[in-house]
Design goal:
The structure is a single chain. About 80% of the residues lie in helices and about 0% in strands. By secondary structure, it is mostly helical. The C terminus is likely disordered.
Length: about 400
Amino acid sequence: MAFASARRFSLPMAPHRRVFATFFLYAFSFGGFFPRLAELQKQMGLTESALGLGLIGVATGTLFSLTFAGPIVERVGHRVILLALLPILPVFYALAAHASGALMLFLCLLPAGLCIGAIELIVNLEADRVEHQSGKRNMNRSHAFWSFGFFGAGLLGALAAKAGISPQWHLAGVVPLTALLIVLLLGRFEPAPHRSGSSAEATHRFARPTLAIGALVAFSLSGMVLEGAGIDWSAIYMRDIFQATPFVCGLAVAVGALAQGATRYVADRFVERHSPLSIARSVLGVLGVGTLMVTFAPNAAVALLGFALIGVGTSVMFPLAMSAAAQRTDRPAATNVAALAQISFISFLLGPPLLGFVAEHLGIRWTFGLALPLVLLSVAVSSILRSSAPRDASAESPR
C-alpha cells in the first residue's frame, strides 16, 4: 500500500517533532491561497461581499466535519486520515483558483473545509497526547509550526507573485510539493496513546458546549476573528488602501504568520513561568494595539507592523483555549476539543461574509476596527483559564 511505502522514504523523528511537522504541513498545504486572494478577487470580478460569501465554503465544510467526523476518525485512525486528507487539501484550493464566481468558489472550498475539520481535530488531539506523555508543554509550539507553515506558504505566494507566476500555476505547483513533504516528514507517523485518566463517556456527534467551553469560546473569539481577518483580507487591505504591489500584499499575510509563529514558539516557557492567564492578558494588550494600528495606519509600513502585532496578539489564545478544553475532566478530551472547535469555527462561518459586507460598505479598515469590542470581551472572560484544572498536575510546572 502507498501508506506502507511512505515509511521507507520518511525521515526518523521524535514524536513531538512529528507533531510539529504535521502542524506545519497542515498550514502549508493551503496557506498559499490567501496571499493571492487580491489577484483572484480581481480575476473573478467579485465584490468584497460576494468574495466573503464564497469563502464561507471552508467554514461550512469545517463545521460539518467537526460535528460528524469524530466517530469516523476514531474508527479509521489518525494515521490513515492524515495521510489521506493532507495531500488532497491543496487540490481543492488549486481548483478554487479557477472559480468563475462566488458559487463556484463556495463549492470548491466546501470539500476543503471537510478535510480541515478532520485534520484540525486530529492534530490538536495528537499535540495534547504527546504533551501529556512528555510532561512538557508543547501545544503552543505545535501551533507555532502551523504559523511557520502558513508563513512559508505566504512567502512562497508573495515570491510567485513577484516572479509573475499566476495564482493558478502557483497553487497547482503546491500540490506535488506538499505530497513530497508529507512522504518525507509524515511517512512514519504513528498516533500517540490516549491520555490516562480521561473520562470513559462516549463521544457524541454534536459536542454540546458546557458553560466552561462557552467561556473559552468567548475568550478565543477576538483572536479567531482577527486571525481570520488577517488571513482573508490583509492582502486586499494593502491593495485597496495603499495600492501595494502583489508582492507586498502577499507579504502582509506572511508577516502576520511569522510574528504569530515566533511568539508561539517561545510561549510555552513563559506560560510555565507566569501562568496561562497572565500571558493571555499580555497578548490581548498587544492585540488591541495592533488592531488600532491597522485600523488607522497612515502608510504601508505602519500597517505591516500592525499586522505583525496582530500576529503576536492572536498567537496563544486559541492554543491556550484548546489546551484548557483538552485538560478538563468532565468529559472525554475529544468531546471538549470538538465542542470548542465547532463553536469557535462559527466565527469563521459568519466572519468572512460579515467582514466582506463591512469592507464594501464601511471601508476595509473597519474589517479590523470593528473587532476591538471583541478584544475587550476576551479580557473580561480571560479568568476562565485560571479555572481550567489540568488532568495530571504532576505533568504541569508550578504556577
